[in-house]
């Protein structure tokens, strides 16, 4: 087998952001309105502060406005819901991102559901999941949407392939499975109660690792020539796959960092531009 292809997430994310920038410019020309993304952060978790800063910076890089709302750690669910409703009612705001996780006293699902579906550019609401699962206009969760951008950029044909998704979180594993199903893959979702996980993973032509455990997936679990998409990012800049052992068994593989990560933010930015177009009465596919 020839050397595996290392999937370049930085390159793909740049391409996606360039598309978003072009759409933003056309929106401005057509309407005089600058699309705007607001990031909502509750508390002062250093990693979350960094992530929201990165998202706002990327937003501004494509010509959009960015706005930040920072609430104290002791914020209640009701207070957060009221703030999200206020933002949702503001026509100058086109996308709302609630940085997660939120402090433990907050009902995170209720907070997500307070985001209007038209402004749910991070794809975290039940409405967005339903639209995506039924192949209707909506927004995909940002990380699975970013993975789909990688799939498209590298001309990976999912039709008839067996895709194994390891992890069933509502914002990664489950939507990823639905997106792969929409691409005509046969999909298996694995989780903590899957019996003999390595033997199930070994059936996968495409393997998506989304468990949040460093170096969890081993190379001897993989079918020869599998496509490995590592959605994990753990302390020490390592993914959910043991890269050294998985690399020689794969035909294509995402590195960590530099694989899935960059495309997550790019997908968020792109979906904000799409949401703005729709809210302003424009067809995003024609921009």
From TrEMBL:
Top-level lineage group: Bacteria
Pathway entry: One-carbon metabolism; tetrahydrofolate interconversion
UniProt: NADP(+) binding residues: 167-169
Residue ranges of domain Tetrahydrofolate dehydrogenase/cyclohydrolase NAD(P)-binding in the record: 142-277
InterPro entries, per database record: Aminoacid_DH-like_N_sf (IPR046346), NAD(P)-bd_dom_sf (IPR036291), THF_DH/CycHdrlase (IPR000672), THF_DH/CycHdrlase_cat_dom (IPR020630), THF_DH/CycHdrlase_NAD-bd_dom (IPR020631)
Swiss-Prot/TrEMBL catalytic activity: (6R)-5,10-methenyltetrahydrofolate + H2O = (6R)-10-formyltetrahydrofolate + H(+); (6R)-5,10-methylene-5,6,7,8-tetrahydrofolate + NADP(+) = (6R)-5,10-methenyltetrahydrofolate + NADPH
Pfam families: THF_DHG_CYH, THF_DHG_CYH_C
An individual GO BP term: tetrahydrofolate interconversion
CC terms in the record's Gene Ontology section: cytosol
Keyword terms: Amino-acid biosynthesis, Histidine biosynthesis, Hydrolase, Methionine biosynthesis, Multifunctional enzyme, NADP, One-carbon metabolism, Oxidoreductase, Purine biosynthesis
Domain Tetrahydrofolate dehydrogenase/cyclohydrolase catalytic: 7-122
E.C. number(s) listed in UniProt: 1.5.1.5, 3.5.4.9
Entry GO MF terms: methenyltetrahydrofolate cyclohydrolase activity; methylenetetrahydrofolate dehydrogenase (NADP+) activity
Subunit architecture: Homodimer.
PANTHER family: C-1-TETRAHYDROFOLATE SYNTHASE, CYTOPLASMIC, C-1-TETRAHYDROFOLATE SYNTHASE, CYTOPLASMIC-RELATED
Function: Catalyzes the oxidation of 5,10-methylenetetrahydrofolate to 5,10-methenyltetrahydrofolate and then the hydrolysis of 5,10-methenyltetrahydrofolate to 10-formyltetrahydrofolate.
Similarity comment text for this entry: Belongs to the tetrahydrofolate dehydrogenase/cyclohydrolase family.
Protein name: Bifunctional protein FolD
Protein source organism: Poriferisphaera corsica
Gene: folD
């Amino acid at each position: 087998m020839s050397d595996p292809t290392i999937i370049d997430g930085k390159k793909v994310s740049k391409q996606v952001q360039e598309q978003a920038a072009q759409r933003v410019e056309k929106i401005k020309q057509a309407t005089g309105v600058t699309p705007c993304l607001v990031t909502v952060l509750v508390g002062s978790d250093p990693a979350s502060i960094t992530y929201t800063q990165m998202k706002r910076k990327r937003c501004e890089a494509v010509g959009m406005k960015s706005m930040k709302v920072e609430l104290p750690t002791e914020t209640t669910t009701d207070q957060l819901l009221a703030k999200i409703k206020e933002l949702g009612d503001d026509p100058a705001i086109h996308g709302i991102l609630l940085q997660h996780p939120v402090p433990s006293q907050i009902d995170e699902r209720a907070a997500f559901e307070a985001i209007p579906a038209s402004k749910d550019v991070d794809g975290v609401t039940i409405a967005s999941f339903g639209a995506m699962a039924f192949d209707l206009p909506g927004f995909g969760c940002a990380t699975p949407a970013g993975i789909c951008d990688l799939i498209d950029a590298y001309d990976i044909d999912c039709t008839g392939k067996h895709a194994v998704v390891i992890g069933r979180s509502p914002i990664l594993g489950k939507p990823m499975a639905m997106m792969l199903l929409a691409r005509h893959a046969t999909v298996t979702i694995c989780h903590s109660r899957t019996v003999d996980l390595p033997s199930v993973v070994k059936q996968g032509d495409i393997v998506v690792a989304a468990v949040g455990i460093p170096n969890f997936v081993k190379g001897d679990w993989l079918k020869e020539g599998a496509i490995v998409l590592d959605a994990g990012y753990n302390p020490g800049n390592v993914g959910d796959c043991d890269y050294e052992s998985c690399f020689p068994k794969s035909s294509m593989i995402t590195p960590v960092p530099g694989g899935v990560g960059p495309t997550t933010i790019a997908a968020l930015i792109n979906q904000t531009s799409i949401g703005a177009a729709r809210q302003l009465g424009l067809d995003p596919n024609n921009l």
